[in-house]
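Standup notes
- HV: blocked on the assembly model, inputs below
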Amino acid sequence: MNIHGMRAIYLFELARWCRTLVQSVLSPVISTSLYFVVFGAAIGSRMTEIGGVPYGAFIVPGLIMLSVLTESVGNGSFGIYMPRYSGTIYEVLSAPLSPLEIVVGYVGAAATKSVILGLIMLATARLFVAFEIAHPLWMLAFLALTSMTFALFGFLLGVWATGWEKLQVVPILIITPLTFLGGTFYSIDMLPPVWQKVTLFNPVVYLISGFRWSFFGTADVSVAASLGMTLGFMAICLTVVWWVFRTGYRLKA
Amino acid sequence: MDPIISVRDLVKTYASGFRALKGVSLEIRAGEIFALLGPNGAGKSTLINIVCGLVTPTAGQVCAGGHDIVRDYRAARALIGLVPQEITSDAFESVWLTVRFSRGLFGRPPDDAHLERVLRELSLWDKRDDRILTLSGGMKRRVMIAKALAHEPRILFLDEPTAGVDVELRREMWAMVRRLRSSGVTIILTTHYIEEAEEMADRVGIINHGDIVLVEDKQTLMRKLGRRQLTLQLQSPLPAIPPGLADRQLELSADGLQLVYTFDTQAETTGIASLLRQIRDQGIDFRDLQTSESSLEQIFVSLVGSSR
């Protein structure tokens, strides 16, 4: 196994992130703070509790997931798209690295950033609203698993994209709507019965529900279903990644 | 000695249906400088990219240092450094970080002393903390070479290393390539500049339309295909070639002032001495004489032309 190679990619990606630390950390923190000011304090004070949880605290897991998903996809796609765009990918492809090692390097770095970001946002949220985390280890597990899965999805997006627009469009057209409609700001049993059924096709529902369960011990769908869906989505992404490297899709002629 | 790279019946058909390589076989000897010549689209880069793992071969086999490049890709690739044709860079990185990255990527533990030697050798040491985007084109090309040398490869591929490089840097690069060879590195370069092959290479391979047309020791090649000419500048014009010289391969210029003798460098005797004696006996005076040798360029043009 080429440990030095994986480490090189991983550290290289983290170094890039550190160089743009202000925009990569500060901007999500600021936008989250704004959500808390608006939804938590201004509107939240007039909302009733949801499942025994004050509204301000209720939206914390959803908001963190919203950012973690967006950032994971963004970082995962940018990490591999950038060298494809600039041409420096030749070096990675000609190195004695297995596909799995390349993926671990890029996706591992992207997921690491998302987990750190999620934790920073958690700390920020705690400044605005009081809450306790019922199952801290599960919370970390869901955070890490979601970050990895969506960084993998981002990696695929970065391999598939043939231009900057495509790289932007997928998060805007797919990830953001799915997250907003996935129960960030509401519990799905607040929806009309038909939409409760429809919303179950949204994979993000399971992520947010599982993550929220780790905070408050209550969930829209069962925790097993949440975990199963997350792992299932990860398995799909891994299969596609395997296919990409096997066929050389958009990487090798 | 076993070849350090052996290519057997290599075929590459791209998705478009274009056959870039049509069954290429080639052996590169350890420690030599091998120049791969060919016109644009001949298959030079495809061949290099297959050996380096950037292009998947359709059929055939390649071994580097005895390791199959597909089955045993880790061992094979660890031996190889590649300087691609196009300059690509992580524009926002410093020179130092980017060469450290390259070394790690190829599975080598950090060795700052080695990287310092490489950067000094390429006159990049003073620029090590500069971001790559601030460097000139020539400097960026040096960075590409430094990256390829960061993991101490035994085989170095230089894909058109001096395209668009000024004379000074070209000379420097040639000197560096020679130093690398003397340290035991095998170098394969593709080039458009025939003078580069003529100056540098131990052996020359010519590729055209996806086929290897010829592989030959450079000296042998030039001797075998080279023709020399002796040109005599005469004192006074001759109306025609004198009958006594009719059996010689002579040509008289239109103004009658130049006599050109073409001879084969491979022949036992050039026949120059006897020719000059005959000319003196004929009472022809000449004021100057030159000999010229056909260059690799002329050889190349005639070969590629005939394989078309």
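- HV (later): unblocked. Chain B touches chain A through 35 residues (CB under 8 Å). The mean pLDDT of chain B is 88.
- Next: hand off to the docking folks.
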